[in-house]
Amino acid sequence: MALGCAVVPDDAARWGAYPGPLAGMLAVLEQASADWVAFVPCDAPHLAPDLVARLMQAAAGQAPVVARCEGRLQPVFCLLPRALAAALRTALDGGERRPQHFLRECAAVEVDFEDAGAFTNVNWASDTEHAGDGRA
Asked: CA 106 to CA 60: how far, in whole Å?
């Protein structure tokens, strides 16, 4: 809460010490009051300024919406309907840990983005060399 944001932990007791991003997504969906929740990784410093707006524009029905760049799905840059929580819980209980697979199983709507730098992850100290220019 130091930054004024609540931390929503995933259920490590249920799915193990590192159940991956799907477990975190489920934890947030189960706490959300909004019908849709946008997800982005915490190590992506160059988000497209219109990312959420474009994902929301593509939202229809209860299908998740996911970013795609240069032909590659960016599965942790997505918009999920809260109504998907039960299906996500079932998938996790069944051993699913791959966001890309889960999203494709749910017939996610894919939205193309051109700027690959918007999906750059900074995970290591060496990645920070280019963190300011989106090439990390």
From this structure: 13
Q: Is residue 73 part of a domain?
A: yes
For residue 61, the Cα-to-chain-centroid distance in whole angstroms is 19
Region label for 20, one of left (φ > 0), alpha (ψ between -120 and 50) or beta (otherwise): left
Instruction: Decide: 34 and 46 in contact? Cβ < 8 Å.
Output: no
C-alpha span between 112 and 7 (Å, rounded): 30
Place of tokens 């929503």: 8
Distance in angstroms (rounded) separating the CA atoms of residues 75 and 114 = 16
Q: Is residue 37 part of a domain?
A: yes
CA 63 to chain centre: 14
Q: Which CATH number does the domain housing residue 42 bear?
A: 3.90.550.10
Range of the domain at 46: 16-130
pTM for this structure? 0.86
For residue range 6-61, list pLDDT tens digits in order. Answer: 888 888 788 877 889 999 999 999 999 999 999 999 899 999 999 999 999 999 88
**Cα distance between residue 66 and residue 80, in whole Å:** 9
What's the rounded Cα separation, in Å, for the pair 19 and 12? 7
